[in-house]
Write a structure and sequence with these properties.
11 strands, five-stranded antiparallel β-sheet, six-stranded antiparallel β-sheet
Length: 243
């Protein structure tokens, strides 16, 4: 499998609170931390560090989603407990969007927050996760337009995060990959800077390093207001294990 990742603090933030997990060939995640001082960094690092040890290779397919959900529930409790024990880490939390990819046909997702997963194929980009954010809720209930959502000053306000409460609701679901050519996992530092139409255009590049540079340069040129992190997985270049 070929996967390329990038992470950058951007042009405005003093530190990078994003963390990226690339455990080829099957486990990938993006975590976008939040909290005072360095607490966001701690939360996102702990999330991907704890997730990295998860072994699903011997888990029956029917139990993969519940295993992913259980893992993130436990990670949530560990981060919450850590924040409760140390005053400097009080209130910290993180988004966590994880993808388990055991074969070419199906991907398994566990998702909390407003980081995203996209499928790309035949020139089209499709978001497969739902944002857990205040603005996204307004948009889903048709209280604002898509343009108002894109420009809202409240688009960074998330309604669900890992580590903020003792328990957390996790979106866990399967994706049928079909003819998709690539997968994109990203923090909102990318999607708040460049449009989905522009991401879609750049994703057509068959050279992954050039593609990744194009996404990062686009977000930085647009202002780099936030930390920018993403993972691109080339499904066509993958060598899949026979089951």
């Amino acid at each position: 499998m070929i996967a390329v990742s990038r992470t950058n603090r951007g042009l405005v933030r003093h530190n990078n609170e994003d963390s990226v997990l690339v455990r080829e060939p099957d486990l990938f995640a993006i975590a976008d931390g939040m909290g005072g001082a360095d607490a966001g960094e701690v939360a996102s690092y702990e999330a991907v560090h704890l997730l990295e040890s998860l072994d699903l290779s011997q888990v029956d397919r029917s139990n993969i989603l519940s295993s992913l959900e259980t893992a993130i529930t436990r990670i949530n409790k560990k981060i919450f407990d850590l924040a409760s024990e140390k005053k400097a880490l009080s209130g910290m939390g993180t988004t966590l969007t994880a993808l388990y990819l055991p074969n070419r046909e199906t991907a398994y997702v566990a998702h909390v927050g407003d980081s995203r997963i996209y499928l790309y194929g035949e020139g089209l980009l499709r978001q497969v996760t739902s944002d857990h954010s205040y603005v996204a809720e307004l948009l889903r209930h048709k209280k604002i337009t898509a343009e108002e959502a894109r420009t809202s000053s409240q688009k960074h306000v998330i309604t669900r995060a890992v580590g903020v409460e003792p328990t957390v609701a996790v979106d866990a679901f399967e994706i049928l990959l079909g003819s998709a050519q690539k997968l994109l996992l990203c923090s909102d530092g990318l999607t708040n800077m460049i449009s989905e139409a522009e991401i879609e255009r750049i994703m057509g590049d068959r050279n992954l390093d050039r593609l990744a540079d194009g996404l990062m340069n686009g977000a930085m040129t647009a202002g780099g207001d936030d930390n920018i992190s993403f993972i691109i997985i080339d499904l066509e270049a993958a060598e899949w294990k026979k089951e």
